[in-house]
Amino acid sequence: MEFGAVIRARRSIRKFQARTVPYECIKELLEAARLAPSGLNLQPWRFAIVTRRAIREKLSRATLATYATKAPVVIVCCMDLEVFTTIQDRVKELQQAGAFSGTCFQGFTSEDFLSGGNLNESSIKANLALNVAISIEHIALQAVNLGLGTCWIASFDEKEVKRIVGISDRYSVVALLPVGYPAYEPEPRPRLSVDEIQIKMYQAENIREARDAKV
After folding, report:
1. Range(s) of the domain holding residue 203
2. Which CATH number goes with the domain that contains 179?
3. How open is the CA angle 93-137-7, to the nearest 5 degrees?
4. 202 vs 62, 194, 198, 205, CA distance in Å?
5. What is the dihedral sign for C-alpha 110, 113, 116, 119?
6. Are 47 and 94 spatial neighbours (Cβ–Cβ below 8 Å)?
7. 116, 71 contact by CB (below 8 A)
8. 3-state secondary structure string across the chain
9. Is 187 in contact with 49 (CB distance < 8 Å)?
10. Which regions in the chain score pLDDT beneath 70?
């Protein structure tokens, strides 16, 4: 499917067919997540794939969105709280790949990055969760491309979800993502216009500046 069409077709799906999702499709969803960008390439996303009906039924007691657990697949989307222990390796990889060449980060070490911001526990978790969210949306868009539907679920009892699925304290659950073949075709949802979401735009002062910006 053409990418613009994928974006326009994406909907939050809350009713699913009983049809089984092939494992090859699940692998394609995870591959899309794997390719998502992340700060310092830490790649904090981790996923528990739940297809067993018994476990999905137990999960229904951990969320108000019980429709989610009726999907044939529920992806428990987590962040690995220990990825910062790999920061030296990740920064080294980025430097070797030339990711910072010609920028102010060229030659930076992992210590430089760690000392350059307010990295308390809450800010670290917020940044990791943001990275995981990007990977989840990669899954959601790839799902549309494969004829599947998804729906972000952020309302759940994390402690109970982790107990049911068997997830250790090393991980924090960011979202539940039901996946399946849609049982209906929702109409487009209302959206604000481009003018309404644009706060400010500083236009080029002259044509030369605009042309140079495109180079």
Report:
1. 3-214
2. 3.40.109.10
3. 120
4. 47, 16, 11, 9
5. negative
6. no
7. no
8. CCHHHHHHHCCECCCECCCCCCHHHHHHHHHHHHCCCCHHHCCCEEEEEECCHHHHHHHHHHECCHHHHHCCEEEEEEEECCHHHHHHHHHHHHHHCCCCCCCCCCCCCHHHHHCCCCCCHHHHHHHHHHHHHHHHHHHHHHHHHCCCEECCECCECHHHHHHHHCCCCCEEEEEEEEEECECCCCCCCCCCCHHHHCCCCCCCCCHHHHHHHHC
9. no
10. 116-119, 206-215
Question: Considering the entire predicted model, what is its pTM?
Answer: 0.90
161 closest CA partner among 77, 43, 86, 51: 77
pLDDT in tens, 78-117: 999 999 889 899 999 999 999 999 998 888 888 888 776 6
CB 153 within 8 A of CB 63: yes
Nearest to 179 by CA among 131, 136, 213, 209: 136
Amino acid identity of 31? Answer: E
- What single letter denotes the amino acid at residue 66? T
User: Which strand ranges, in their side-by-side order, compose the sheet holding 171-180?
Assistant: 45-50, 73-80, 171-180, 149-150
